Amino acid sequence: MRAVVRSGWRIGAAAAAAALRGRAGRPLSQAAGEGGGAEGGGGSGSREAVERLVREHPVVVFMKGSPAQPLCGFSNAVVQILRLHGVEDYRAHDVLQDPDLRQGIKDYSNWPTIPQVYLNGEFVGGCDILLQMHQNGDLVEELKKLGIRSALLDAEKDQEKK
Amino acid sequence: MRGPLLAAAGGAMGGAGGPLARTIRAKLTAALQPTHLEVRDDSPRHGGPPGAETHFGVLVVSGRFAGLPPLQRHRLVHEALRAELAGPLHALQVIARTPEQWQSDPHVPPAPPCLGGSKR
């Protein structure tokens, strides 16, 4: 994974696409259906559905577009930051494919914008906060808690902390 | 003091800005009593015409943020702009610092470039 990160963006993007092809490449209505079918009145944007999504994986991102092809500068920033840390294996959900999810994720987190980043099922913020965490070293620490070793620990011996 | 946020904004910062910019400024001022506030209309950088007022960035420096983690600071900003975010405000970049933080680090990261095709 680290070698992939250092080799360049295109390879990284391909690896990300490969890692995600089983999940984010399909319309979310299909993915949600696969997860066990509708429960009660819950659509793809229901609290229960969103809860399942955020707990799927240690790193879950709700964005516009996909990691291979982000459709928004802020969503792309999240993808690039994760890529810098060598995080290519995560769950990404394209809210442009699913209006119910797009509203549901905002209701769930009480946060008005996309992208949204969840670590270990917990909402950590959007692009601005992730960038701040990246710059001040917090992201390396949060990834470590998830058992993910940031690629930057190897790339840079002197990680600056503010 | 005009901070780097305005310098980075390019051409979108004439005078007091459009009506939404003025509303944003007024509401943030009332809610957070900032010691420093910059409101930037980024709409032109996202494909809208100048004055479209759909994408904004705000730099808020306020003692109200002391002791609060970034998530809570941003939530305070969102709360102040709840009506706008439910309406015409499609995207909002937020930089929220205490006066001490702003003094020791009066720099802001550049806004990510728009990739087009972004709808709320």
Automatic annotation (TrEMBL), chain A:
A GO molecular-function annotation: 2 iron, 2 sulfur cluster binding
Glutaredoxin domain residues: 59-124
Ranges of Gly residues composition bias in the record: 33-45
A Pfam family per the record: Glutaredoxin
SUPFAM superfamilies with a match to the protein in the record: Thioredoxin-like
Keyword Transcription appears in the UniProt entry: no
PANTHER family xref list: GLUTAREDOXIN FAMILY MEMBER, GLUTAREDOXIN-RELATED PROTEIN 5, MITOCHONDRIAL
Entry protein name: Glutaredoxin-related protein 5, mitochondrial
Organism the protein comes from: Rhabdornis inornatus
UniProtKB/TrEMBL annotation, chain B:
Pfam families: BolA
GO cellular component, one term: mitochondrion
Signal peptide (UniProt feature, chain positions): none
Region (Disordered): 36-55, 97-120
Top-rank lineage group of the source organism: Eukaryota
UniProt xrefs under InterPro entries: BolA (IPR002634), BolA-like_sf (IPR036065), BolA/IbaG_stress_morph_reg (IPR050961)
Family that this chain belongs to: Belongs to the BolA/IbaG family.
Annotated protein name in UniProt: BOLA1 protein
